[in-house]
Amino acid sequence: MKLDLLASHIVKSYNGNQVLKDCSFSFDRPGIYVLTGSNGCGKSTFLRICSLLEEPDKGEIFYIEGGAVLPCEIALKRRMTLVLPKVGLFNTTVFKNVAYGLSIRGIKGREAVERVGKVLDFVGLDHKKDQNALTLSSGETQRAGLARALVIEPDILFLDEPTASVDEKSTGAIENIIQRLKQDGSCTVVMTTHDQQQAARLADFLMVMRDGKISAC
Amino acid sequence: MHSILESFSRALYLILNLNKELIGIIFLSIRVSGTALVVATLFALPLSALLGFKKFPLRGAIINVLNTFMGLPPVVVGLFVYLLLSRSGPLGFMALLYTPAAMIAAQSILAFPIVASLSHSAIVSVDPIIRQASMTLGATPVQTSLTVINEARYGIMSAVIAGFGRVIAEVGAILIVGGNIAGFTRVMTTTIALETDKGNFELALALGIILLLISLLVNSLLYLVQKRGLAGNR
User: What angle is formed at CA B176 by the lines to CA B171 and CA B178, rounded to 5 degrees?
Assistant: First the structure.
């Protein structure tokens, strides 16, 4: 069943500086949602709150399935994932990194091998599976981060500035992966970018964050 | 000079002939120090994890005390354990004084702050992004903590090796609580001290060479562990 997300009147401050001022948005249709805005405007904070990594000072996040609001438990948290701008790969092989999400869900053995193989092939890193993840290039690191997120087959995939630290070629490769996710229709993608052109290229639903508030375009 | 060379050649003879007394002393040393290290690590790792993951009152004070106790003088530890285990002490009823168990207890106390403090440093040195990445993938708090500990594994292994290096070479504590009883509590360092006093340099030298080789092995291991840890961070 489809999982919808409703962010309602989110307020968040850091050290007295109000970053988010009454942000509300409904993610209730499949596709790619792109949130743009200048650096430091609060896009990442909004994403972290939506993905339940942080709690808002005020307001609420609702995850709705079949008309019912789901409790904010680990079972719900495991239906979504956020790929951070600095991916944070573990000091082990690419394979083990990607298999991590499966391992903590108790999925091991042949099923894990097959799912990891499939997703590594999808992001074009199958040939690097036995390499230490910390030796990957920045573009490959981002793709490994995407693979690590995709292998758990999330209902909602949050991507925080997925191409901010990579070159043009890698940006193209990552955008291509995101486009293919859209074609598959396997998950809703919510991403941030400060690149307006990229936002225009990828977005089904474009949002702009300005003065701590979100507006749809 | 002649006597030094002669003692040295006799020491080598003892080693090469696998002298029974020598081997017995080496194995007892490794058994005592190894067990002490296991005991110290079993207590130190949970404490270092607790200090690394939880904020609670007196946390800073505990870290400060651990750092201070890394330089504990072995004789002071020996004296403390002696007072605890002596017949009139609170644990005197256990009759552990002058046994390998007493030596293990003393060496565990010596190794504990080193393993705990260095492991804590290794855990807090892990990039906070690892914790966040783990959480975003749906890990429970326990799974997240285990992931961070796993990332700190090379630092923790270095801590354990450093703890072993500390206890295998110490003499003060085990001499006080072990009593240096031949065939029972006589280990490498206490034998070296005793045999030197007696002028029996060949056994002392042989054990000195073995002790140096063990130190070399420990340091080589430490180097390899650190190199392996860095290899992934290239």
Answer: 85
Q: Which of B136, B154, B227, B230 to mutate to test the interface with A (most CBs of A within 10 A)?
A: B136
Question: Domain residue spans in chain B?
Answer: 2-231
Which pLDDT tens digit goes with each residue over B34-91? 999 999 999 999 999 999 999 999 999 999 999 999 999 999 999 999 999 999 999 9
Tell me which residue of B10, B77, B89, B84 sits closest to B40, measured CA to CA: B77
CA dist A123 → A26, A111, A127, A149, B96 (Å):
29, 19, 11, 11, 63
According to DSSP, residue B94 is labeled G
Nearest to B98 by CA among B39, B172, B35, B181: B181
Minimal Cα–Cα distance from A149 to chain B, Å? 7
Tell me the residues of B at the A interface, defined by beta carbons under 8 Å apart. 127, 129-130, 132-140, 143, 147, 150-151, 229, 231-234
CATH architecture for the domain at A3-216: 3-Layer(aba) Sandwich (3.40)
Contact A11, A59 (CB under 8 A): yes
Domain segments of chain A as ranges: 3-216
CA angle B32, B35, B36 (to 5 degrees): 80
The answer to whether A51 contacts B129, with C-beta atoms less than 8 Å apart, is no
> Is A103's pLDDT higher than 60?
yes
Q: Which CATH architecture has domain B2-231?
A: Orthogonal Bundle (1.10)
Q: A194-209: buried (b, 16+ CB within 10 Å) or exposed (e) per residue?
A: beeebbeebbebbbbb
Tokens of A13: 């401050």
Which residues are B130's β-sheet partners? none
What are the tokens at A201?
């290229």
Min distance B162 CA to chain A CA atoms (Å): 22
Q: Which among A51, A88, A135 is the nearest to B133, CB-wise?
A: A88
Q: A202: closest CA among A189, A215, A213, A214?
A: A189
Paired with A191 in beta bridges are A34, A159
Residue bearing the bigger pLDDT, A174 or B226: A174
Pair A48, A82: CB distance under 8 Å: yes
CB atoms < 10 A from the CB of A185, how many? 9
- The CA distance from B225 to the nearest CA of chain A, in Å, is 14
Query: ipTM, 2 decimals?
Result: 0.92
- Please report the sign of the dihedral spanned by the C-alpha atoms of residue A102, residue A106, residue A107, residue A113: positive
